[in-house]
Amino acid sequence: MKPNETLIKRQIETHGSRLTYTAYHEAGHAVADMVLGHGVARVSIVPDPEQWIGGASLQCDGDDMTPEGMADLVVALYAGAEAERCVRPKDGDNFKVIKGGASSDDDKAEEYLSHCRESSDELRAKAAQLVAEHWGFVELVVGELLEFHVLDYEEVDHLHDEYKGEGAYIKISPLAYYRLKHADFLAKLPGRKGV
Asked: Is the pTM of this model over 0.90?
């Protein structure tokens, strides 16, 4: 699936380019971790007071510190920049901005690369392929991030089910059902907009 340029333009007009690009970046991390079977504790596009970034809290099983588990973690770290790269205009300045925004991800990935069987380039290519193959899921997460700014694990999990076509037995979407059931909890998430 390819990026919907009309949708991206509308998102930028409505939410601003910085917030939109951050949403794609954080969604890339979340989608990779979900697709690789690890889960996401929380995804946010709420600015950090010290610097303008969002965050995806990846859940890594402590017992999956195998070379394969480490490679999955590196792919998830690289997937943020790969998703952002798909929606930013293709010029040198934007690639520098992406590289700068992903520097902490690259630093974390560097810590795990020595335990991986594949090279950084191979894992970056896997991240790009994963993002491209699951672009519909990326767009679902971005839409929710731009509306609510913070998503918890259950919300991302329900979006994953929706993306896979599961949960159709409920008359409303699984995500809407979850939000109705957990409105009080969700309203208390730091930086959360709406329920």
From this structure: no
SS (H, E, C) 146-176: HHHCEEEHHHHHHHHHHHHCCCCCCCCCHHH
Each residue of 88-144: pLDDT tens digit?
877 666 666 666 667 788 888 999 999 999 999 999 999 999 999 999 999 999 999
- The Cα 15–Cα 41 span in angstroms is 24
Burial (0-12, 13-18, 19+ Cβ within 10 Å), 94: middle
- Kindly list the distances between the CA atom of residue 123 and the CA atoms of 8, 23, 112, in Å, as whole numbers in the listed order: 26, 22, 11
CATH of the domain spanning 5-187: 1.20.58
| Length of the chain in terms of residues written | 195
What's the rounded mean pLDDT across residues 76-81? 93
Q: How do the domains of the chain map onto residue ranges?
A: 5-187
Which strands sit side by side in the sheet containing 40-44, from one edge to the other? 55-58, 40-44, 150-152
Of 161, 84, 71, nearest in space to 124 by CA: 71
